[in-house]
Amino acid sequence: MTISRRTVRALCDVRGRLRDLAAAEHSSRSETQLRAEELVAAARHELEGSLELAAGAVQGARGVDTLDRMSELVAAHHVCVDEAGAELAAAVMMTEETAQLLRERSRQVLSAERVLQRYQRESALRAHRQEQRVHDDHPRRLGRDTKPR
Questions:
Q1: CA 104 → CA 23, 31, 57, 78, 79, distances in Å?
Q2: Radius of gyration of the chain from Cα atoms?
């Protein structure tokens, strides 16, 4: 059974589109990962600022209430850093998944292109053989027609 040229081209086109969709998804996930990294950096910066503020407040503290407020402030910033870290881990995982899908789609495109190249080579070979048969038969036909009866 031979595969039509149209089918092979359609296969290449569909696989190319799927690869393009995977590339777009990976780009989107990579952008999400970058934003998550920026959020982690910002949360850590805020934590450092709150620690400096807490250090100054502890030195000037006049009661336990001030220490409790500073402890709550620092704990809240620790929670923010932990949440941002969890979001980053999820974003990294999603980015890795989309990267794997992109690699898979790229391999599929390459295999479809190899099928197309093979089809084109076989088609050219068939055309060459057919042309050779025509040229080989031509002198025979001429020879038959020119022989006396």
A1: 11, 21, 56, 39, 38
A2: 35
CB atoms under 10 Å from CB of 113, counted, come to: 15
49 close to 70: Cβ distance less than 8 angstroms: no
Q: What is the pLDDT along the chain (149 residues), one digit of tens a residue?
A: 567 888 888 988 999 999 999 999 999 999 999 999 999 999 999 999 988 888 888 888 788 888 888 889 899 999 999 999 999 999 999 999 999 999 999 999 999 999 889 888 988 898 888 888 877 766 666 665 555 55
Torsion of CA 19, 25, 29, 34, to 10 degrees: 80
The CA distances from residue 86 to 14, 52, 73, 80, 90, in Å, are: 36, 25, 20, 10, 6
Closest CA to 71 of 54, 84, 56: 54
